[in-house]
Amino acid sequence: MAQIKLIPYQVESTEDHADEVPSGVQLIKAPEKWHKGYKGNQVVVAVIDTGCDTNHPDLKDRIVGGRNFTKENYGIPSDLSDDNGHGTHVAGTIAANINGHGVAGVAPKSQLLILKAFDKNGKGEMESIIKAIEYAIRWRGNRNERVRVISMSCGTSQNNKRLHQAIQQAVRNDILVVCAAGNNGDGTSETTERNYPGYYKEVMQVGAVDLDRKLADFSNTNDEIDMVAPGVKIKSTYPGNKYATMSGTSMATPHVSGAAAIIVEQMEKEFGRRLTEPEIYAQLVKSTIPLQYSKRIEGNGLLMLGTDHNSSNQNNSQIQGKPYIISEARI
């Protein structure tokens, strides 16, 4: 049976306490959106990962539901426990509460649908990942909420037709799928490293930079990169009410997933209607600044939610009278 694994990542350190807005969240200027009232309120992000510490004080109020697709703990559907740590860390970067202690996520009022598809060793069956995507498409909340973003930090070198079809179905249902580029890079744009599902045209593929806006040497480069985000020494939540600092494109991805939740909240308020997936994608690309790297490294640039920077992106065109960005990665 085909398997898919978490993208390898590095745990730099763990600690019992934290009291900060993490540097990556600050770098993309998420607090500027908070001060304008946009924190991803009620926007549902599905996290397909190793589960989550649902009792973590920074996360317990953000979780709206979930399901276990692994065989761990006898495959009990309601078991969302995270014996790996990766899923809890990703969840925190997306949505950790602003509660006076701990850390804050990019979209601290968004809601998380925890879909456990990877075991404690970071391994998952391809069928489980596909079922998790299909579940995210079908899921409805108590007020008929729907998943608007899927965050995935996993990868395989093999192109899987059914996985691709599931992602295409999610996109047709106006769900933005955000995927890590992978950590097989060699620090140069001249070589191509492909990681699926990140390499699929339909997804938002995210590479990593450090906190000085320099390319992370491990970050994959290819002709489908959409943008980069902070992925080196990122502090977030960790099982057991702890906090960990980790590195990897897995850490860059949830910055973009959280940003998507903020964009959905803000733009739907401004437009007065529901955004389509291409519009969410376009508005996210608009929220980037160039770093002067090759497109194969940075795609459209560094995620930057601070509105002062949006006008610096010169790739604007107009579709149906609304701001729209055409990314080279989707042509």
TrEMBL record:
Keywords: Hydrolase, Protease, Serine protease. PROSITE patterns: SUBTILASE, SUBTILASE_ASP, SUBTILASE_HIS, SUBTILASE_SER. CDD domains: Peptidases_S8_Subtilisin_subset. The active site is at residues 49, 86, 250. GO terms for molecular function: serine-type endopeptidase activity. One of its GO terms (biological process) is proteolysis. SUPFAM superfamilies: Subtilisin-like (SSF52743). Residues 40-301 form the Peptidase S8/S53 domain. The keyword Protease applies. InterPro entries: Peptidase_S8/S53_dom, Peptidase_S8/S53_dom_sf, Peptidase_S8/S53_subtilisin, Peptidase_S8_Asp-AS, Peptidase_S8_His-AS, Peptidase_S8_Ser-AS, Peptidase_S8_subtilisin-rel, Subtilisin_Carlsberg-like. The keyword Protease applies. Belongs to the peptidase S8 family. This is Type II signal peptidase. Serine peptidase. MEROPS family S08A. It comes from Gracilibacillus kekensis.
